[in-house]
Design a protein that fits this description.
With 128 residues, this protein is of the alpha/beta class. 36% of the residues lie in helices and 22% in strands. The protein has a single domain, classed as Rossmann fold. The chain has helices at 3-8, 19-27, 44-53, 64-71, 89-101; strands spanning 10-13, 31-34, 57-60, 79-83, 109-114, 118-122. It has a six-stranded mixed beta sheet with strand order 2-1-3-4-5-6, sandwiched between helices. The model has no long low-confidence stretch (mean pLDDT 89).
Length: 128
């Protein structure tokens, strides 16, 4: 994915994404906002609604968003679930670099980044 495509991706980082990781993503030219900029302690449903209202893809370590999207059929502009324990804030940014290099469409998808693989699933309730 080219840098111009990276800039088109709009992300919302959940509270559990380190601020240093967010800074590194911004340095890479990615449009990323943080839930912390709005309000701390928001419910998962409110976080998902915020991402949808801003047409941003939610980036999180919280598996509960899978439950919201698949079991509770909440709409989503997209979710990237990080399923690994980062050793540093750079690990989060590097995992996103890897995702972008694959040129996958992550909008309106549920994407899971694990230590050794990336899976992307159709979002059954995509945001219109």
């Amino acid at each position: 994915m080219t840098l111009s495509n990276k800039r088109r991706v709009k992300l919302l980082a959940d509270e559990n994404i380190p601020l240093e990781s967010i800074r590194l993503l911004k340095e890479r030219g990615i449009d990323v906002a943080s839930v912390i900029e709005h309000k701390t302690g928001m419910s998962d449903e409110s976080v998902l609604e915020l991402a949808n209202s801003q047409k941003r893809i939610l980036v999180t370590f919280d598996k509960d968003f899978g439950e919201l999207v698949f079991r509770h059929k909440r709409s989503s502009s997209g979710v990237v679930l990080l399923r690994f324990v980062p050793k540093s804030p750079q690990d989060v940014a590097k995992s996103f670099d890897n995702l972008m290099s694959l040129n996958l469409d992550i909008e309106n998808r549920f994407t899971v980044i694990e230590k050794d693989r990336i899976r992307t699933l159709p979002n059954p309730n995509k945001q219109e």
